[in-house]
C-alpha cells in the first residue's frame, strides 16, 4: 500500500468536500409575467453587476398567447424592470448578448425569427427585426463578428403549437449591427436545429442536433459561410445537445441529455478540441439515488472554467410521476436543480442539487435552465420554477485538482485570454489566483499608453473575472484596434493581446 498517495487522496477528499460545501445559495429571487407560467431560457451577468433573464410567459397556454418575457435585476436580485413583447402568434426569447447601448434578444415574434434590441435602463424596445423564413421559425442564439451579427436557429419547425422544438431545419443569418439582413441560408444538410454559435479566431462554431434529434452536432464555419468541418456525437439512443461553450484555448464543451446506454435520460457532457475531436465524454445522473428507471436528468446550460473544465446545469426528477419514493423526506417527483463541476479530464469534481425545499418552499419544482459565471467566483443560474427563478450561488469554481498520481495541485497564477476575442464592445477576462495578494490588471494601447485600470486592489485566492467595455479611464469609448492587457500579482506579470472591432 502506498500510504503517501492514499494520504494525498484523503486530504484531497476533504479539500473537495470543503469546496463542495461552499457551493451554497447566496440568494434566490423569482418573478412571473402576466401568464400562468413563465419559463426562462437564458441568463447573463450584466456589465453593471446585475442580471438579465429572457424566455417567455404563458408557456403552457395556447401558443397564440405566448409572450416574450425579459427580467432585469440588480446584483442582489431585486427586479429593476421587466418587459413583455407580443406581436400576435407565438413569441419567445431564447438568448441575449449585451452591447454598448442595449441588450440584443434572439428569439421569435409571431413564429418569425427575430432580433430585438432593448434599452438598458428601461427595457423599452429600441428596434425589433423579424424574418419570415418559412413555417415556425426562431433564432436560438447570436454572436457579434467583425462584420456584424450572426444568428442561428431553425425554420419550418414541425410543431407549431408548442414553444419547445427539437425538429426543424437549421438556419443561419448574417446581419449588420442594426440587425438588417445581409444574407441568410439553410444549413439543414448539416444540422437540423442550431442552438448555439460562438466566434473564435475569426471562425464560427455552431452546435445543435442532427435530423430527428438523434445525435449531437457540431460544425465549424468561416465568416464567409464555408463549412470547414462537421461532426456528430452520440450513441444508438436519443442525444439532445442544447448547450455549448468554448474556453480561451478554443476547446469546445457540449451539454445536453442522452438515452444512449443509459436507463433513462442522463446528463451528457462532451469536451472537444478545436478540430471537433472528442477529448472526453461523461454521462451522469440520478444524484439523489432514486430508481434510475424513473428519473430524468436534463441538461440545458454549460460554462467553461479557467482550469480547463466546465460546469453543467440540469434538472433532475420524475418526469411522469411514476412513483414518489422518498429519501430523507425528499420525494422523487420533486424536481431539483442539478449542478456538476468537471475537471479538465472529464472527472466530476463535485455535484450538488438545489430544490425549493432549500428555501422552505414545497410548492414548485426546480430545474436549472442556464448558467453564467459571475465576477465574484460564483454563478447565476436560471431556475424554472413556474416563474423566472434567479439562483445566485457562491464559490462555484474550485481551485483544487488532483493529478493522475494522486498529488494535490493548486492552480497557478493564470491569466486567461479575453473572451470573446475579437470583440465589440464588451469582453471578459478571467484569471485564477493561487494566493491572496495585490492584483493589478491594466489595459494598454499598442504604443504602451495606459488606457484603463480594471483592477487595482487586494483580492483573495480563487477564480475571478472582470469585464472591459472599451472605455478609457475617463469613460470615453476608444477606437478599434489591437490592445494589450497586463496582470500583475506581486512580482509576477503576464501580458496578452486582444482585438477591439469597430
Describe this structure in words.
With 502 residues, the protein is mostly beta strands. The protein has two domains: 3-402, YVTN repeat-like/Quinoprotein amine dehydrogenase (Methylamine Dehydrogenase, Chain H, 7 Propeller), CATH 2.130.10.10; 414-500, Immunoglobulin-like. 4% of the residues lie in helices and 54% in strands. The protein is built from one helix and 39 strands. Strands 1-30-29-28 form a four-stranded antiparallel β-sheet, with no helix packed on it. Strands 2-3-4-5 form a four-stranded antiparallel β-sheet, with no helix packed on it. A hairpin with a 4-residue loop joins strand 16 (216-222) and strand 17 (227-233). The longest helix has 20 residues, at 3-22. The N and C termini lie far apart (62 Å). The model is unreliable at 1-21 and 399-411 (pLDDT under 50).
